[in-house]
Amino acid sequence: MRRSIATVSAAVLGLALITPGAAQADPLSLAPPTPSGGDLSPADKASLAAGVGIAPKAPYGAKPKGPNPYLAEVADPAKVDYSGWANYMKAQAKAKTATRDKAAKDAKVNAAAAKPAVVVDEDELPGTNGGNDIPVNAQRVTGYGTGSGQYPNIRILGSLDNEVVGTPTVAPAPEDNGSIPLAGATGIGTGTQNGAVITSEIGDGPHGRQTGDGSNDFDFYKLTAPAGKVLTLSTATPTGPLDTVLQLFAADGTLVAVNDDFTGLDSRISYRVTTAGTYYLAVAAYGGLPADPFDSGSGGGIGDPSPPTEGPYTLTLTSGGVDSDFFAVKLRAGDIIGGSVTGSATYLTVYDTAPREVHGSFQDASFIYPLDSPLPGGGNAVTDYVATKAGWHYIGVASGSGAYQITVEAYRPVLQGAKPQQTLYLDFDGARVNTGVFGGTGNVNLTPFAAFLTSWGLTRADEDAVIDAVVAGVNESLKHDLEASGLNPKFKIKIANSKDNADPWGKANVSRVVVGGTIAESGVDTIGIAQSIDPGNFETEETALVLLDVLSSPAGSTPASLNTYLGPTSDRVKFVAQGLANVISHEAGHFFGDFHTDNQDALPNLMDAGGTGFATLFGVGPDGIGGTADDIDVDFGDSAFLPAEGFVGTEDTLGRIVFGVTS
Fold this sequence. Notes:
Elements: H1 42-49, E1 72-73, H2 82-107, E2 118-121, E3 139-140, E4 153-160, E5 184-185, E6 195-202, E7 219-225, E8 230-236, E9 244-250, E10 255-260, E11 268-272, E12 277-285, E13 311-320, E14 325-331, E15 336-343, E16 347-351, E17 357-361, E18 381-386, E19 391-398, E20 402-411, E21 422-427, E22 432-434, E23 443-445, H3 463-485, E24 493-497, E25 510-515, H4 519-522, E26 528-530, E27 543-546, H5 572-591, H6 614-618, E28 638-640, E29 647-648, E30 650-652, H7 653-658
Parallel strand pairs: 2-4, 3-14, 5-7, 21-24, 21-25, 25-27
Antiparallel strand pairs: 1-26, 4-20, 6-13, 7-12, 8-11, 8-13, 9-10, 9-12, 14-19, 15-18, 15-20, 16-17, 16-19, 17-29, 22-23, 26-27, 28-30
């Protein structure tokens, strides 16, 4: 029952060859959450819309300031160092994987999958490509799986053999070459030339800081390619401080791919040409992208607090055939698979039975798996998937040249056949929480939910009604909808709360969401944050926070405030409960296995990231007012991954949960 509380104060060939922070125009949106502030320059807004951060970047491999955005529901993406966090997680992944593997071995978790890996050799002839380049032609790995007599752990040895393309040295175009109309020639697509190497400099044009007006220099290059070829475009900066960003535009100015920090601070785009024609590559500096690719003077200035870097670079461009390899494995519904690739390959993906791409990755974000997760990490790229249907699934690798090794491991849900079931506890009473696990200040007391009611125009007399409606909303999203999906007849979860139930925190298979507290109290600059992203729900006892100071801030102060959407006709109890239930479900979704989804696509999803997407996450309808008849029911389901976080494909956020939470 409720505790007494003290007085408190208030694709190429199916593989989308895009690099981290990149996206394709169709089907993936290019836009990450946009900033809540209205004082950003057009260039800064264009950077965020391209999936490239504008916050000061942490030194390579160092931990950035603020909470991990992969785990947090941030109010303002303009403050987020996405590249810095990807680089930090990559730097930490090997050590975290070693610690996680040792913990799993010591605990003898999923001992069946700890069997020695079976080696699978690629059967495509050495030096050739085309034999297993798409899922329908995938090399089948028989005997793989989690069933009796099968082997759930394999090491695939293969090689990527690309078309050889010459790269003659081409002289850089004279300045000003800072826009599509002024782009320098590369010769690619002219006659028989399909490659080039160009050495130039950012900062030497009429818009550089030393030689021009300081609005920011960028260099554009023109290249032509037929459909089916892959444009591979990369920078190297062996001398000087330049931190490059690459953007690839279609002739009409549509951004089709972008990358920041592929190798160190250097950038690379691999883009399969879907429509033959002329494309334009922009080389710019982090924090200094153009607002308009047709205007060389559209930069945002030197930047505050730190200016974009300038310096020399070498640009290598090729247009050619690129090898990709697929391997088919037969899975059971509910199998959790993880993959990690080393060697030459830098892209790893999973396709489902359709087949459609369900988790493509150029990065290793396994740092955010919990220690109890046995999924592999520590590679050039790491991916995972929870199978929702039995049948052939496809592991794909690309973006490299030469030998590679893929580790693929499969597991059954840790709660399968276990008792008790998973419990999710919603704590509205305030709690003492160690916020250090989220990057906060340590053990702190968080203000209970009741103290925030007046900020939404409610009273203490409304507390029980709001809590009841919140609990009903979480039950609908995390219990009833998943049961109704029919994917897993053994799906089972108990939703408990501090109003109606004794506190079970600390017991087996209990995770919790603490609803209360502020940024100042917690030391965590976010609205909500989860302890991990845990595909398969291997760690069944985790904590998430839903802080209430931003959510209850004055109307119009931020799109992340529920008050921004309240009006005279609003049912305040209904809308506040609806918004809170959705945010709570979002945070629980993380530690049950979900990554963020794109809040700018046409599919509202409970895992949508924040920014201006808060109206959708809260369920505000077309009238723009919360708590009215046209409010929408936001659920888990299919949506694109958030482009700014560097994953590719369609994420089934319901399917990732429904088998990890089972009995």
